[in-house]
Amino acid sequence: MTAAHDPDPPKNGQAIRLAMVLPDMRRAGAESVVAALCRSLAHLGVEVHLVVIGPRCEYQDELANSGVHIHRLALYEQGPIRFYRQDRHWRIRRQLWHFFRTLKPDIAHFHLMHSLVWGGAAARAAGAKTLYTAHGRDPCLTADDLPSRWRRLLYTRAIAAARCRLLAVSPSVAHHQAQGLQQEPHTILIQPNPVDLTACHPAPYRSTLPERAIMVGTLYPLKRVHMGLLALRAWLEHAPAAELWVAGDGAERSRLEHQAQQPPLAGRVIFLGVRRDVPELIRAAGVVWLLSEREGMPMVALEAMASGIPLIATQVFGTRDLVQHEVNGLLVPLDQPEAVAQATHRLWLDSELRQRLVAGGLATVRRYETGRIAKEHLAHYQQLLRDP
Fold first, then answer.
1. Among the four residues 4, 51, 124, 385, which has the most C-beta atoms within 10 Å?
2. pLDDT tens track for 304-313
């Protein structure tokens, strides 16, 4: 991992003009990371321009009065653009060429693959140095179906055209990128996600925990919320008053709500929708469940640790880079809800274990404090501007 150090003063006494570029700005993990970095980098004196190619900027209120310039371009309507609709993709590229020629950023930092594919070459042509952060595992890098091969070709071409420096949020993501791009892993810099230790301060000490688990994330199949419902069913055998909070929204919500209406889960699962007060919700829980089939560097795990709430997570790609079993969390096998229930019951029986995990989590998150991670990003930018 990169070492934390104080960055040099801005180039030539002037603020670096930075474009942070995403396809869309919904409430999700990578987007929350970018919003936090934008605020902190603006505080460090960087001229930050948040460039949202799509129609949504759901962090606009939080970024108000932060010094961040927001450009919501709305170059496409909400929803995916199929790979075969190259006419729409090319239209977006042309419009980004005009945008970057007007903005003229010193640095263009792209997040999520479509932003780089659409805008990488345009930013470079406008004189910007470029970076791309990979936030998770993208199946197109290793799959062999036609859409995946096409996306992989566009991605590799975009990296070459932009002469882009590659970052990854965890060793697992760096390894996956290197494998898909046929590069050496050391050529991809590891730059982890930040966590706001002000918002995610520890909950007050409680001798007994509320019999409440919480899951946070977009309700997609890979998040395995349905496994959380099965884990709750098993946990109810040990804790008849237990309940599960689910914060987030997505394509699976109606199916999950129907599943949660069946006995013995009826009345025990509360769907909270998309929320802005996730740290407060986590502090009100007794345990955080992160049961995904894969992650990049899970923000939910960082928020749980920073909030002083025990974490139970699946031992999968990305998560295992951050969570150490019985040090700062408990790891369980994927898709084994009975193991989740048993680990949860164990936490309730063993106060010494709970205290050890909370202490380990709080020690872990100090390394990922937002201000420190923002300074590391600024150091990357300054080095990139010095490079020929």
1. 51
2. 999 999 999 9
**Domain-located, residue 146:** yes
Structure tokens at 266: 């009826």
Q: How far apart are the first and last CA of the chain?
A: 24
User: Of 30, 28, 72, 26, whose CA–CA distance to 49 is shortest?
Assistant: 72
In three-state secondary structure terms, 50 is strand
Can you give the pTM of this predicted structure? 0.91
Domain count, the chain: 2
**Residue 335 burial by Cβ neighbours in a 10 Å radius (0-12, 13-18, 19+):** middle
Sort strands 269-273 and 107-111 into parallel, antiparallel or unpaired: unpaired
**Whether 326 contacts 342, CB under 8 Å:** no
Say yes or no: 184 and 221 in one domain. no
Q: Reply yes or no on whether the pLDDT at 13 is more than 70.
A: no
* Domain enclosing residue 332, as ranges: 212-367
Q: Which two tokens stand for residue 211?
A: 């019999």
Q: Hey, which bits of the chain come out as E strands?
A: 17-22, 47-52, 69-72, 107-111, 129-134, 165-168, 189-190, 212-216, 243-247, 269-273, 287-290, 311-314, 330-332
Residue 9 predicted with pLDDT over 70:
no
